[in-house]
Amino acid sequence: MRKYLTEFIGTFFLVFTVAMAAVAGHAGDFAGLAYGGVLMVMVFAGRHLSGGHYNPAVSLAAWRRGSLAGREMVNYWVAQLLAGALAAALASQLFGVAAASPLPLVRSQALTAELLFTFALAWVALLVTTAKATHGNAFSGLAVGFTVVAGVYAVGPLSGAAFNPAVAAGIGILGTLGWRDVVGYWLVQLVAGAFAGHLFRYLHPRE
């Protein structure tokens, strides 16, 4: 239960920060730093309890890599998605956050951007939080957080820079994405996470 509560808390603050900083526009051009920053501190805070995923795609990567049991992965997903939905609902109902209109996406560009940077995020997370060579390191949160920062500034205008099914669901609730786009994001994000886990196993066969 401690693992699931940790994932719930971390994902809640992740999605709430995205809602307030990016969707509401409170952080302006610094929204990427807010997104990456909250992920960084939550990884540092919860890595020893749950692995610090806060992202169903990362949990899928961890399962595929062999560091998370299948039943635990499903429970992580439930905690993460519920937390994301609650965070978006809170931002909407109490603070009046809502997108003026859905992002004007070129779907092929948006899906490719989400695929690439969700893979990068899951790949980095596996390497710095589960690999034997980096066990006990003091930089995992920085590495994971700045992967998101890089992604936001690289492809944010193309896709909204979700890189996370829980974030995609949250910004869907807030109207930033249409639900057809949310489902498309989920598919490519989960494919990216699965591939990251598979590639980790291929490159680290003894782990």
Low-confidence stretches: none
Going by helix content, strand content and strand pairing, the class is mainly alpha
Would you identify the CATH architecture?
Up-down Bundle
Alpha carbon gap, first and last residue: 26 Å
Count the domains.
1
- SSE order in H/E notation? HHHHHHHH
CATH topology descriptor: Glycerol uptake facilitator protein
Q: Using only CA atoms, what is the Rg?
A: 16 Å
CATH superfamily: Glycerol uptake facilitator protein
State the share of residues found in helices, binned by percent.
over 70%
Shape: globular
Task: Please provide a written account of the structure.
It is a single chain. The protein is mostly helical. The protein has one domain (2-203): Glycerol uptake facilitator protein (Up-down Bundle). The protein has eight helices and no strands. The longest helix is centred in the middle third of the chain and has 26 residues, at 70-95. It starts with a helix and ends with a helix.
Summarize the structure.
This protein is an all-alpha fold and 207 residues long.
SSE arrangement:
Layout: H1 2-23, H2 31-50, H3 56-65, H4 70-95, H5 107-129, H6 140-159, H7 165-173, H8 179-203
Quick tags:
single chain, Glycerol uptake facilitator protein, mainly alpha, 207 residues
